[in-house]
Specification:
18% strand; 8 helices; three-stranded antiparallel β-sheet; alpha+beta; 38% helix
């Protein structure tokens, strides 16, 4: 220790070099050398030990990543490429593809237990059918499964921020308009509409049957010639 102090004093007196030590890891001490420019009096940092410190930090991080259960790989990862492994691959990232991916992750028993990969040829979604279509959700189906799926989808979109909101970000706005869905039936198929109506009501769908007179009162601009029955998906907010 006395020898180190002597070296410190001699170096400082002869060349203006100042030697200091800094604690950079639990049981590791490295010396950081700096010298004072004689002409300007400016402190100039020697980059050697700084670079060494950065290398040690990177090594410690890589060693931690290499522990069991991590995703570390000796090969350099290109973030623009898909992962090398996936449990489920979904081709097509439209509303159906993303919905499948979302619910698979929501239903997994262990967090990050299922690796789901969605492959979409248009990452900007500027040409995807989902964003190019106006879309529409109706409950007037003849199968219970379709009715329940439609009702669940409508509920999901009505409460979209409970599912897809991001902390400290603007609320999600789907511009979801609740304007109802109207079907018209002639005398030939009116009985089918009535049968489907019974199934829809049994499933809990909000649907109303309208006579031609009621339909005309609700939507005066519609030509009701040949219309025997109308099925309207609530809410009754307009046509």
């Amino acid at each position: 220790m006395s020898m180190w102090k002597g070296l410190h004093m001699t170096a400082h007196a002869a060349h203006g070099i100042h030697v200091s030590s800094r604690f950079i890891h639990k049981h590791t001490r490295l010396c950081t050398l700096s010298f004072r420019n004689i002409s300007t009096g400016r402190l100039v940092q020697n980059d050697f030990f700084k670079d060494l410190e950065n290398q040690l930090k990177a090594f410690r991080e890589k060693a931690a990543d290499a522990m069991p259960g991590s995703d570390w790989t000796p090969f350099e990862k290109n973030r623009s490429l898909p992962p090398e492994r996936a449990d489920i691959v979904i081709v097509g990232g439209g509303v159906v593809g993303w919905s499948i991916a979302y619910w698979l992750k929501q239903k997994e028993m262990i967090r990050d237990g299922v690796r789901v990969l969605v492959v979409e040829r248009d990452p900007t979604y500027s040409q995807a059918s989902t964003v190019l279509s106006a879309g529409g959700i109706r409950q007037q189906f003849s199968l219970l499964e379709n009715i329940h799926l439609s009702m669940a989808s409508a509920d999901f979109m009505r409460n979209i921020n409970e599912h897809l909101s991001v902390l400290n970000d603007d609320p999600v706005d789907l511009q979801f308009n609740h304007s109802g869905y109207l079907f018209l039936a002639s005398e030939k198929v009116a009985h089918i509409m009535e049968e489907n109506y019974s199934t829809q009501r049994y499933a809990g769908a909000k649907v109303a049957l309208l006579s031609p007179t009621q339909l005309k009162e609700k939507c005066p601009w519609i030509n009701t010639d040949g219309v025997v029955l109308a099925s309207y998906g609530l809410p009754l907010t307009g046509c």
